[in-house]
Amino acid sequence: MLPELGHFALILALLLAGLQAFYGLAAPALGRERWLAAVIPATAGQVVMVGTAFACLVASFVRFDFSVAYVAENSNSALPLVYRIAAVWGAHEGSLLLWITLLAAWTVAVAFGVARLPPRFGARVLGVLGLVSFGFLLFTLATSNPFLRLDPPVPDGRDLNPLLQDPALAMHPPLLYTGYVGFAVAFAFAIAAMLEGRLDQTWARWTRPWTLAAWAFLTCGIALGSWWAYYELGWGGYWFWDPVENASFMPWLVGTALIHSLAVTDKRGLFKSWTLLLAIIAFSLSLLGTFLVRSGVLVSVHSFAADPARGVFILAFLVIMIGGALTLYAWRAPLLKSDAGFEFASRESFLLFNNILLVIAATTVFGGTLAPLISDTLGLGTLSVGPQYFNPTFLLPMLPLLALAAIAVHANWKRGRLPARRRSLLGTALAGLAVAFALVFGYYAGRAGLALLSLTLGVWLILSTLVDPLDRLRRGLSMPRAIVGMTLAHVAVGVFVIAVTAVETYTAERDIALAQGETAHVGGFDFRFDGVGALDGPNYDGVQGTVQVSRDGAPVITLHPQKRRYLVQQSVMTEAAIASQAGRDLFVALGEDLGAGRWSLRIQIRPLINYIWLAAALMALGGFLAASDRRYRNVRAPATAPVDTGQGSPA
Amino acid sequence: MNRFLLPLAGFALLAIVLGVGIRHSKTKGVVVSPLIGRPAPDYVLPNLIEPAEKFDSRSMKGRWYVLNVWGTWCVECRAEHPVLVEAQRSGSLPIVGLNWKDSDEEARSWLAALGNPYVAVPVDAEGRIAIDYGVYGAPETFLVDPQGVIVHKHIGPLSAEIWQRDFVNRTTGAARTGS
Question: What DSSP state is assigned to residue A559?
Fold first, then answer.
């Protein structure tokens, strides 16, 4: 019964989403004030139905209902409860339902949020969200129904892909999708503002907290995926420029540009059309990410069963949503005027450069991701784009961005008064250079070159960011959450740069065969292999090696890399032993038994690698703090009239 | 024309590329691998069928063979298995079955129950070799020529037609041209 109930709820949700979109968009457009009253009930109904459908799918997994094809394909009677729930989004159909469910969750938050805004504007926002939801619900019901039954049912399921049976990966899609879907809110606000002709700076104020929260969720999601790749796959890397990683990274880059551009529009009423465009592009890239992963156009780690028919549907959806939004933009944006000016060294200029550089970075990633597809489409043969392309082309806009950020935090709105800040700018820059010199030539005593430059920039950014907040503290001024969040996020960027530089430049790595008692010398540490013993865990057995790590004769730690055979899940997993020290990770993975007591071992020393994820977490925390700033909570519609479109009759 | 139309124009261009991309993926069903035209990575792994000896991929040099990546946890591998068994019966090409991230016991009982189409089953328990081959998700199937060069890669389950068209025909075609 439950799967049928879920299926029925999805159909009702589709109808209600259609009503939500219709009333939300038609009522203000046709001036039917009484229709406005229908928007909230339709929205509430849609959300409840989506929630019901999602609950039905979860229940089918929890109750081992192998008569449901999707459940049978992605779980097993031996799968633990937590992974049975995570298996809901273990494949395509459930991932879509998760997407829709998270959109419903955002919709609830937005519905409460827009209650304080003008009713027509709020209705339009909910109408656009309803349209997005309608598209995804139609897609799910037409091509990817998760509730299809198997006839006859199978006695047991085929289990979740063992790669996906990991706590970090169970949380990765929900966080990532929460970020993706969150950009739908910024998109809906932008569309509503364009439809309304309300293109003054208030819509930017209303959009900012939503965009910040979405960006913070996306940051968490990407970081968790990267962390999982490092710890669980044991490949030792944290970023692979895989098409699906790129698909999540492009909206992040544009979203980062958007939160900065929104700040300018909110504070100074500038960059209005540019901000609108960024809001459209950020969500378009989220949709495009879904398209790339789900259509089979590009194949990657994450696309297990791609289907071109689905691709056609998503493409049509993209054309309607993005094409429609951009058409509206082409029509409305020329009407925007801003009369405020700004000087060259003002904060506005720096944020403009920030936007340009971030968009260039997103474009290079976009180009690299789509180049194989384009080359194939034009019949130019196969093309593979890897880190050799991405690393340098991404770095090119990023290094100047860091330098500009370090200066920009000192710049004032409107006026270029940087010379007055010369002392603290020079001071922090010199301090950055000194720290970088000390790290490169003293502490790591390794290659310099690019490392010297990027370490300087990283340290400079941190110090420069801290100058103003510390000054505020000293003078006893208030510290709004927006400033705390911004400071935290900028410091985190500096930490991130330092960590990535250290990992990329100073990682020591060796693959080596050792017999019992032999020692390998890697990066100043001695690794003595003390053989392997049998391992007997709660739900696995296997072997466990013992490796004594010492430095200059003094014992540091004993590591126990394992090879586990999971009895329930029937898979062999390598559990690398990773010791996280303050300044580095010591990594030992057990390879093959080479016979006669010899084993192959992979030993790595990765400096500061943990700080990459710490930095990402700090960035996200900064985003959440800024989103929760008090001044966003008491927003009320100002008395200003919609912008004069200047062309006689605005529609 | 106003400059605000540029984003729309750019998007239209992108939509066309994506549309053509979908049509391509529909007709070909093939995702090209950067490994095509490159030597197949060598490896030595335990052989599931002959536990006493290790399987060395270099032992396959000098003849055409197929490398099929599979696991008992993989749903689509079960769907393609009869195709492999049939292909082995026709004797057209030897098939090496790389057992990816699997348990030996499960894999053995799978082969016992469904038939063994493989001349050897190297066991890649940690997925290291699969990474060398750029495997994204099972099943994936590679065609390797007598010089040990990968000439074709198929992603997803095989069918009898795909097997004939993309695997068997390539070997006979190459034989005719004498390469």
Answer: E
Q: For tokens 């109750």, name the residue.
A: A63
Query: Residue B154's beta-bridge partner residues?
Result: B141
User: Looking at residue B67, what is its pLDDT?
Assistant: 94
Contact B102 A572 (CB under 8 A): yes
Split into its structural domains, chain B has a count of 2
Q: Are B2 and B78 in the same domain?
A: no
A646 interfaces chain B, CB cutoff of 8 Å = no
Instruction: Please compute the mean of the pLDDT values over residues A427-434 and round it to a whole number.
Output: 93
Of the candidates B171, B172, B175, the one whose C-alpha atom is nearest the C-alpha of residue B66 is: B171
Pair of tokens at residue A113: 């949020």
**What is the spatial distance between Cα A514 and Cα A597, in angstroms, rounded to a whole number?**
8
More confident residue, A64 or A295: A64
Pair B118, B136 in one domain: yes
pLDDT reading at A58 higher than 80: yes
Domain of residue B142, CATH code? 3.40.30.10
- Structure token pair of residue A639: 């008395």
Q: What is the C-alpha separation between B94 and B118, in angstroms, rounded?
A: 7
Chain A CB contacts of B2 under 8 Å are 330, 334
Pairing type for strands A540-551 and A519-522 reads unpaired
Mapped onto helix, strand or coil, the DSSP state of residue A592 is: strand
The torsion angle over the Cα atoms of residues A68, A70, A75 and A76, rounded to 10 degrees, is 40
pLDDT number for residue A233: 63
- B21 and B45 belong to one structural domain: no
Asked whether A617 and A175 are in contact (CB, 8 A), the reply is: no
**pLDDT tens profile A535-594:** 876 666 788 999 999 998 899 999 998 887 765 445 667 778 888 888 889 988 887 778
Q: Is the pLDDT of residue B177 over 90?
A: no
Asked whether residue B68 falls in the same domain as residue B127, the answer is yes
* Model pLDDT for residues A167-197, shown as the tens digit of each residue: 887 898 899 999 999 999 999 999 999 998 8
Identify the pLDDT of residue A651.
34
Q: Are residues B18 and B61 in the same domain?
A: no
Give pLDDT tens digits for A85-119.
999 988 888 989 999 999 999 999 999 988 888 89
Give the containing element (helix H, strand E) for A86. Answer: helix A81-86
Quick check: A646 pLDDT over 80?
no
B88 lies in the same domain as B127? yes
For residue B5, the enclosing domain spans 1-29
Same domain membership, residue B132 and residue B87? yes
> Which residues in B lie closer than 8 A to residue A150 (C-beta atoms)?
none
B6 and B35 in a common domain:
no
Q: Nearest residue on chain A to B31, judged by CA atoms?
A: A299
The Cα-based distances of B54 to A313, B49, B85 in angstroms read 48, 10, 23
Query: Which of A377, A541, A563, A573 is best to mutate for the B interface (most B CBs within 10 A)?
Result: A377
Mean pLDDT over all residues of chain A?
86
Q: Is the pLDDT of residue B115 over 60?
A: yes
Query: What is the spatial distance between Cα A534 and Cα B46, in angstroms, rounded to a whole number?
Result: 20
Q: Where are the domains of chain A?
A: 1-165, 167-335+347-389, 397-505, 508-607
Q: Burial, A451: exposed, middle or buried (Cβ in 10 Å; 0-12, 13-18, 19+)?
A: buried
Asked whether the predicted pLDDT for residue A251 surpasses 90, the reply is yes
Q: Which residue of A has its CA nearest to B74?
A: A161
Tokens of B151: 């000439």
Strands (E) in B32-166, as ranges, are 44-46, 54-56, 65-70, 95-100, 123-124, 140-144, 150-155
DSSP 8-state secondary structure symbol assigned to residue A447: -
B56-114 pLDDT, tens digit per residue, is 888 888 889 999 999 887 767 887 888 899 888 887 789 999 998 888 888 888 888 88
The span from the CA of A142 to the CA of A414, in Å, is 52
Tokens of A37: 């009253």
| Closest residue on chain A to B11 (Cα) | A323
Which contiguous run of DSSP H or E holds residue B123?
Answer: strand B123-124
